[in-house]
Design goal:
The chain is α/β, with parallel strands linked by helices and 271 residues long. 56% of the residues lie in helices and 10% in strands. The protein is built from twelve helices and five strands. The chain has helices at residues 30-40, 52-62, 78-87, 105-113, 126-153, 163-177, 186-193, 197-208, 212-230, 235-241, 247-258, 262-270, and strands at residues 22-26, 45-49, 66-70, 96-101, 118-122. The protein has a five-stranded parallel beta sheet, sandwiched between helices. Strand 1, helix 1 (30-40) and strand 2 (45-49) form a beta-alpha-beta unit. The radius of gyration is 22 Å and the shape is elongated.
């Protein structure tokens, strides 16, 4: 049966015509690693690591969109790598595909316990691997859209279930505690969370499809909308309360998000 692989691929592409998504291949067999990389290179930006230890270093530094890892490797095997990735805030959101021998049922069971998202048994067809990679990224995108809508529309109603949601709640709590500080920005949030700015950017972007700056701004503007709806504070007071020192800039950003001026938004709630 011919699988419709092209229908499973993400639709977002960069200027070079490749998917903007990064896929890390962790495999100690150089030939197998090159085979996988060569077959994915047309659609993804592919990174390579020769063992789990090195793969973990790359993953926590680059924060790829998906990781394909062999199970049996020196230095650190695939199940241990998966466990460390899922336990680390920087990488817990990344889908992991484990490669294993067809008969290695215990490896599959152990990997699933460690949080693996999918298995592909060796020997495998390229079409099947591409399909699984594409489907996992599609599912990741659907989750990203869900989180993006929740954050922009109702951040205070974010339901805490997964590691991603716990991370977002932590980030939102930090932003809300520093809401009045006009100097609060990406650098401060990264320091408070304990991540480098590039890693935080990749993490927030992967979960919400927002840059860190836009993520912070969306939380502040939603708070402003809540204050407009539930208090008698002036627009200038609200702008200051959510960390905007310039009322005009605040109004401009508010219009971008809500489609109307703060005063118009407040009046519409009274009708």
């Amino acid at each position: 049966m011919v699988l419709e692989v092209e229908n499973s691929l993400p639709e977002a592409f960069n200027e070079a015509g490749k998917s903007k998504y990064k896929v890390l291949v962790v495999e100690d067999n150089a030939e197998v690693r090159a085979f996988i990389a060569d077959n994915l290179a047309e659609d993804y930006e592919v990174l390579e690591s020769e063992n789990g230890k090195r793969g973990l270093e790359v993953a926590t530094t680059i924060v790829p969109d998906l990781i394909i890892s062999d199970v049996m490797m020196p230095e650190m095997d695939g199940t241990e790598l998966c466990a460390k990735l899922k336990a680390d805030e920087r990488t817990s959101h990344i889908p992991v595909v484990l490669l294993t021998a067809k008969s290695a049922y215990e490896h599959q069971l152990e990997g699933l316990k460690m949080g693996a998202d999918a298995y592909v048994t060796k020997p495998f067809g390229v079409e099947l691997l591409k399909l699984k990679v594409g489907n996992l990224i599609k599912a990741r995108n659907a989750m990203r859209l869900k989180f993006s809508k929740q954050i922009v529309l109702e951040p205070q109603e974010l339901v805490i279930e997964s590691a991603d949601e716990k991370f977002l709640y932590k980030a939102i709590s930090i932003i809300e505690k520093s809401m009045e500080n006009p100097d609060f920005g990406v650098a401060v949030l990264a320091a408070e969370i304990g991540m480098s700015q590039p890693v935080l950017y990749r993490k927030i972007k992967a979960i919400t499809d927002l840059s860190v700056a836009d993520f912070i701004k969306s939380i502040k503007l939603k708070k402003a909308a809540m204050l407009l709806a539930n208090t008698d504070m002036s627009v200038a007071e609200i702008a200051f309360t959510v960390g905007f020192s310039d009322r005009r800039h605040f109004s401009k950003e508010f219009i971008k998000m809500f489609g109307r001026r703060p005063t118009e938004y407040a009046e519409s709630l009274k009708q």
